[in-house]
Q: What sequence folds into this?
């Protein structure tokens, strides 16, 4: 009896404490994999009083999880590190339309849809080994399929989301037939079977195991700023190309997010999305994670990004690229680009 009373009092007391502690909260499902984001979330909480519960995982896992959770999903915001994943979440009907004059004014139209927004951009650069190739050999993504690069190309797996999105962009620009011929050409040029992430490709190009590869810009900037002298030296010897400067511009991918349709905290979710487009957050993405702000005209201090220089970016709409993803996947399968 005594014990039971204690249990009841304890339970009631616990419930009361819970109720008192019902501070505003945001449940964030994030596929971003960067340590630097911690400071961003802390700054958001400091400014708004909204605490962030974060669940990290691969985009595909998070999307599956939201689907399985259904209307009970605690997720308020989904953040990913590429446009394709957002498009997939959207195609499953997981994202809510967000009307925000602030976001629409801050984020260029080609970097958002009705249901998701880019907060940073990153370029897919061509990096090459200067002992094995000349800059003039690798000025475009198309050049990677040129038979004279036989045995020199390294790549992540064909279906790696960064690669898949690039191929979807090629479909959007060149059409299906030409993109398939390109994919077959790249496969014929491979130095080894596709594996690893962008950092692995950079290392292999530096050692000369491969002559050329493609990498997201922030990985290169990260190595340029490394506190390990061998990493800094490794990238110093690499040739770096902004692809397709003479025509459509370099392929750009994004990191972005949207509000989950079943969000239980839509006001907090909107505040968070708008925070990510604020000057402070935009500068943080550049300074701490080597990504470019999507808001134009912002100054930031990042020597490595500055050293990469300026380029002409492809301004095709990411929503358009996303529509070509299924075709891109089929092309990669048919070409044996795995
Ligand atoms: Fe990445």
A:
């Amino acid at each position: 009896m005594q014990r039971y009373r204690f249990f009841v009092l304890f339970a009631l007391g616990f419930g009361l404490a819970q109720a008192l502690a019902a501070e505003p909260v945001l449940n964030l499902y994030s596929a971003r994999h960067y340590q630097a984001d911690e400071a961003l979330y802390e700054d958001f909480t400091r400014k708004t009083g909204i605490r962030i519960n974060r669940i990290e995982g691969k985009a595909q896992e998070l999307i599956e999880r939201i689907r399985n959770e259904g209307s009970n999903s605690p997720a308020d915001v989904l953040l990913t590190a590429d446009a394709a994943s957002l498009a997939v979440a959207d195609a499953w009907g997981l994202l809510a339309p967000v009307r925000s004059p602030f976001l629409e004014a801050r984020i260029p139209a080609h970097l958002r849809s009705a249901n998701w927004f880019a907060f940073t951009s990153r370029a897919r650069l061509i990096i090459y080994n200067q002992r094995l190739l000349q800059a003039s050999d690798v000025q475009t993504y198309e050049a990677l399929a040129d038979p004279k690069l036989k045995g020199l190309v390294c790549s992540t797996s064909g279906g790696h989301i960064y690669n898949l999105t690039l191929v979807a962009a090629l479909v959007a620009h060149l059409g299906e037939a030409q993109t398939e011929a390109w994919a077959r050409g790249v496969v014929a040029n491979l130095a080894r079977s596709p594996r690893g992430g962008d950092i692995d490709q950079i290392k292999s190009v530096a050692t000369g195991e491969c002559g050329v590869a493609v990498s997201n810009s922030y990985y290169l900037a990260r190595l340029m700023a490394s506190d390990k002298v061998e990493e800094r030296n490794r990238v110093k010897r690499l040739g770096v190309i902004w692809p397709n400067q003479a025509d459509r511009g370099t392929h750009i991918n994004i990191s972005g997010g949207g509000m989950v349709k079943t969000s239980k905290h839509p006001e907090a979710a909107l505040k968070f999305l708008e925070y990510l487009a604020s000057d402070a957050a935009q500068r943080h993405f550049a300074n701490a994670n080597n990504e470019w702000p999507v808001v134009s005209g912002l100054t930031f201090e990042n020597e490595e990004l500055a050293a990469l220089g300026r380029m002409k970016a492809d301004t095709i709409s990411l929503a358009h690229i996303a529509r070509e993803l299924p075709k891109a996947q089929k092309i990669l399968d048919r070409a044996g680009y795995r």
